[in-house]
Amino acid sequence: MFGWEFPPHISGGLGTACFGLTKGLAKHQVNIRFVVPKAYGDENQESVRLVNASDVTVNMKDSVYKEYWKRIEYMEIGSNIIPYVSPEEFSRILSQQELTKIAKDSRVFSNRFDFSGAYGQNLMEEVSRYALVASALATSNDFDLIHAHDWLTYPAGIAAKYVSGKPLVIHVHATEFDRSGENVNKPVYDIERKGMEEADMIIAVSNFTRNTVIEKYGIPENKVVTVHNAVEPTEKKKISGTSHVPEKIVTFLGRITFQKGPDYFVEAARLILERDSNVRFVMAGSGDLLEKMIRRTAQLRIGHKFHFTGFLRGADVDRMLAMSDVFVMPSVSEPFGIVPLEAMRSNVPVVISKQSGVSEILQHALKVDFWDIHGMADAIYGFLQYGGAQKMFNRYGKDEVENLKWEHSGLKVKEVYQQMLR
Amino acid sequence: MGTFRTQGQRSVSANAQIITIQYSQQMRSVCLYFQVHQPLRLRTYRFFEIGAYHNYYDDYQNRFILRRIAEKCYLPMNKLLRELFKEYGTAFKVSFSISGIALEQFRMYAPEVLKSFQKLAKTGNVEFLAETYSHSLSSLISKTEFMAQVNAHRDLVRQYFKQEPVTFRNTELIYSDGIGEMAAEMGFKAVLAEGAKHVLGWKSPNYLYVNAINPKLKVLLRNYQLSDDIAFRFSNRGWPEWPLTAEKYVDWLNQADPKQEVINLFMDYETFGEHQWAETGIFEFMRSLPARVFSHSDFSFHTPSELAEKMQPVSAIHIPDPISWADEERDLTAWLGNDLQDDAFDNLYSMEEMVRKSTDPEILKDWQFIQSSDHFYYMCTKWFSDGDVHQYFNPYGSPYEAYINYMNILSDFRLRLERGVKPGESPAFRDIKRETKLLTEKTVKKIATNSRAKKRKKPAAKTKPEMKGKKRGRPLA
Q1: Which of A380, A392, A400 to mutate to test the interface with B (most CBs of B within 10 A)?
Q2: ipTM score of the complex?
Q3: How far is B233 from chain A (nearest CA, A)?
Q4: Which residue has the higher pLDDT, A221 or A238?
Q5: Which has the closest alpha carbon to B357: B417, B416, B411?
Q6: Residue A327 has pLDDT above 80, yes or no
Q7: First to last CA, chain A
Q8: CA nearest to B369, candidates B330, B406, B340
Q9: The model's pTM
Q10: In the predicted model, is pLDDT for residue A70 greater than 60?
Q11: Is B401 on the interface with A (CB under 8 A)?
Q12: Is there a catalytic annotation at residue B247?
């Protein structure tokens, strides 16, 4: 299995999902060797054997690798291509990368590659070298099947397939259309499409993503199956967050970018505040639309009831969720969307957009179209105002989330494997 | 009432004559009863409309759906019944209950449907039953409201169909001993109920029973097996008995123990043409059923009131907790029991007292419409696991949506009540108050003019300058 990150060294949902899936598969007696660009040594390896791509020796004289090296194009891209990282984080990584870039460039053709395993400007370079390492691993190891997660590892998956002749499964957690809207980054799109075409089977994290794969990448329907993500069971630690304001709190938590639909949240807040001043709205996160959102709330004169927290991480996220009365995810395009599940686990009712993968599997949540600000406002208001909905949610919401087990997803993935090995 | 008692004296065809003879010897009856109801769907009502807009109904949807069902079911099926009546005379009979909300919608959107039911009423082959005007759950919470609604519906039946209803059937066949007792108190002779297995036990629904509290009230129980063969299974190709023919069906009727006296076939009228499309052959089935019954069985058709009149009840039936004809459970869980439903239900009926004080026709009309059981049906969460039936009839994406929309409307309704009538204020009291107010104002004016006259004589008030001085003086001191 090829992935780009693995807990605890993650920047977002991808690593968490990979970890959950490997655990789920392990429950069904599937042995996994998980290859990451850079292993730190403190990863949780209870269900997988983690292989550090940085430790793999590549003999450049071997013609096989040379053959592959010829096949892949070297590309450099400069745009924001990261699926699950905050823009601040990104620029921070970027500057770090800049510093180490020169040092690394000279080592492209050395025997060992030192991967950063992060997302940065020379990402394409790393993706290519990672593919090279993959082909080396594919010749020296015994395995039945290759499974690659998201576009960063597709070239690696393809390389391993060429070398070994083993079937390739690619797992689509997000597509370029989710990250960039209609202004897709061509090189990334090309890698994605190549991966999808070369793959023997494609797993999408939601029907929403499956449709994108079929419609936007022209992949035949029978090659794409949906396996929804799941969540890890609640950890024992209980973070208590108590609100110190008398008002109810409605929260948005995520990157403040076009994809996440923050503007619809602001407009819905306005509608509610016109009616009921006993509510406060919180927008947690950062992103390129943050300033625009601040300006808009000021313009609407709702600033006194609308708060921005900036980027939250770790315990702050849990605390924020714990003090919320309603969580809103108005995403314009969301392959899956794990945060609502975390909110529900903290007993916070959620309003989610129908344009999210997670809406396909939730019943105890209110679903609206992202553009329908009236419907969104109404759903939020309903949860705040009417006890019946709260009560009902409290009774079933948490259970619903806790029944979304990786074990079940793992079984479905295993079925895909078996189907291909038959 | 007289219309039902003429049966047996007129002979229309040879078949009918034979039936009349058998009637007196051995009574074996089929009782066809159809429920006619169409929910008055609520529109999407947002919270920011609360207090501003008071129109709650999705006129477009209601009209569209009603017209569709009129074309597919009501009109063709009524026509078919008229033809059957013409052919078999009083030997073939059916009974209907049409909810007040359905009648209201016929009047608004499809007057020709109402007319065609009125034509059926004139044939004398049809008994019209009474029910709650709103197709509501009021029988479960308020005797006053329940009786008011049944009376309102009874008036409608009298007005439209020129009949005095003597049989009662409650919303969705909800029945308990207590509900039966209320119906008896209102003068009904018979009531319809579900032949639910869990209350019947070893007993058969194919007999006449009486209410456990008031034995004067006869209870007719639905044979759900034979009813659902038509209503649910008719077009199911996965059903081993498919396709169902009148021949086969009459064979099944004949298989009933000869001692059993009545087979009650109760179903939605929309079965014909709407739930089972015309293409399934449902109309042909109904067209050929009476002939087959007459030629190949000793059954005859009777209406509930006839059966109540002539048959000997076998025993009392004890149903302490309400049952209904819905779902596998045959209980109330389609409408009540989850948090959404219970909260909405309590909220609705907490306003009953306030409504009673209102005379505003708009408020009274909305009060009837929002009580319809359908609104609670949409909040049912059972369909999460099963029940395609629920989803088929549900205009909402989820029970939560149904609940929030309904609660928004209730909030507005409550606001209107509070604005219109202050607690303890009847319209009569308001008039008195207005008069008193006028009177007081007059008196005040009089006193004022008098005192002004006096003031002129009086010296300026002494206290005023002192007060001023005190106020101003304090900061100085």
Answers
A1: A392
A2: 0.72
A3: 29
A4: A221
A5: B417
A6: yes
A7: 19
A8: B406
A9: 0.78
A10: no
A11: yes
A12: no
